[in-house]
Amino acid sequence: MRVCVIGTGYVGLVTGVCLSHAGHEVICIDNNEEKVKLMQSGQSPIYEPGLSELMKSSMEAKRLQFSSDLKAGVEHGEILFIAVGTPPLPTGESDTRYVEAVARGIGANLPENSYKVIVNKSTVPIGSGDWVRMLVLDGAKESKKELVGAGGAAVAEAPKITFDVVSNPEFLREGSAVYDTFNPDRIVLGSNGSRAIALMEELYTPIVERQFAEDKAAPQVPVVVTDLSSAEMIKYAANAFLATKISFMNEVANICDRVGADVTQVGKGIGLDSRIGNKFLNAGIGWGGSCFPKDVSALVHTADDYGYDAELLKATIDVNSRQRLVALEKLQHELKILKGKVVGLLGLTFKPDTDDMRDAPALIMIEHLNRLGARVKAFDPIVSQSGISNGMTGVIVETDPERLADSCDALVLVTEWKQFLDLDYTKMAGLMNDPLIIDGRNFLHRERMEQAGFRYVGIGR
Ligand SMILES: NC(=O)c1ccc[n+]([C@@H]2O[C@H](COP(=O)([O-])OP(=O)(O)OC[C@H]3O[C@@H](n4cnc5c(N)ncnc54)[C@H](O)[C@@H]3O)[C@@H](O)[C@H]2O)c1
């Protein structure tokens, strides 16, 4: 099928590349010309395991193109994905101006006598499906086209533009986005148009049948078909639930710290209960990234708009804000005065296997350490090589873990990169002023760290 994906960030680029790998003809559109040029040259502007390889092979097979020409993309695609960012505003609401611009742009460029499916893949406030429909119609009106909705009655002249809007929320995790796209737990399709749903089901057939999955014999991927608002709500409810699960476990960790229990043992003990499940039970220094913070805040805001005080979700956010400072409190407890001390951060990104720094807990830690007069150094497998570090203030980004450890009074493990399990910690301890490590993700082995000469402090253990 012919597909156009508008917005080539973590979601859009991965979607476009994976759909082209699955056999569809895809054009990815972005209004950032520099990014488009980079992608046209075969390079990915983001880091995601496996993405560059698939991108190159789909480009060679001539199933994947990049452009900044929205008109060409809209003409090409039977299915048009909107995958632009919806960052948070200071009020907690989502900033939907990029979605608005794209929806109007699609309307202005919809060709006559063709049917298009317009898919919201961006996470948008509940009710945005109808809003996008309105904006597409506005865009079309502004470009003086005659309009009829899908299945609409014939008017004086023959129908010229027909389209339906679908909400198809994205659940991929940064760091395993390609894997998640080919191995999803479910696909959610929300629309009021059966023609659109049928086309979306056809589009996703290779994925539903697990043709590119790790386990090809696994049962088909469940497709959940809903109305527009329910699909939009599913995305928010899923992220709010996961964020709440982590905040819950962080609260338990803080109580463990006080009563002398070990939260890692508690997590194992409760995770074996099938009603609870063993995922998202790791205590640490809190959640961050581009999705959880903004999506939970946006849901609180939506509830507020409709006269409901979402107290549990507010507590989820409050617990997380406090949790981000737990490593700092532990540093103060161990080192007392932080002024004039050197603290090394192992990891900067909000999670491993990504280059994404949006709302990363490391940023808040850097800010507070600076305020308290400590010198901050960091090493991150991706950030240290990528040059992103050039834009970071208040932190010296080192090129390797040993340079990081040199002259530090403490290390804090911020991101659980796999390679941090196997560093030469004995050598690193020898280079430090004080071999203290705060394991902000309960990721390292206490005994091994102690054998290497470290004083080990975890979270809730
Ligand atoms: N990142 C994730 O893990 C994730 C997961 C699920 C859902 N989402 C949601 O998906 C959406 C996209 O997120 P992301 O992280 O990929 O965003 P991103 O910021 O990485 O990428 C957005 C892209 O859209 C482009 N863009 C902006 N305005 C444009 C326009 N008018 N025309 C063409 N391109 C335009 C930008 O240049 C950028 O490349 C958001 O709503 C987000 O909440 C993200």
CATH topology of the largest domain, by name, is Rossmann fold
Can you tell me the CATH architecture of the largest domain? 3-Layer(aba) Sandwich
List unreliable stretches of 5+ residues: 151-156
| Fourth CATH level, the homologous superfamily of the largest domain | NAD(P)-binding Rossmann-like Domain
Q: Helix/strand/pairing class, anyone?
A: alpha/beta
Total strands: the figure is: 14
The shape is globular
Q: Rounded to an integer, what's the Rg over CA atoms? A: 24 Å
| Number of helices in the DSSP assignment | 18
- Which ligands appear in the coordinates? nicotinamide-adenine-dinucleotide
Mean pLDDT: 95
Tally of separate domains = 3
Amino- and carboxy-terminal Cα gap: 53 Å
The CATH class of the largest domain, by name, is Alpha Beta
Instruction: Give the strand content.
Output: 5-15%
Q: What fraction, in percent, of the residue positions are helical?
A: 40-55%
**Main sheet?**
6 strands, parallel
**What strand line-up does the widest sheet have?**
3-2-1-4-5-6
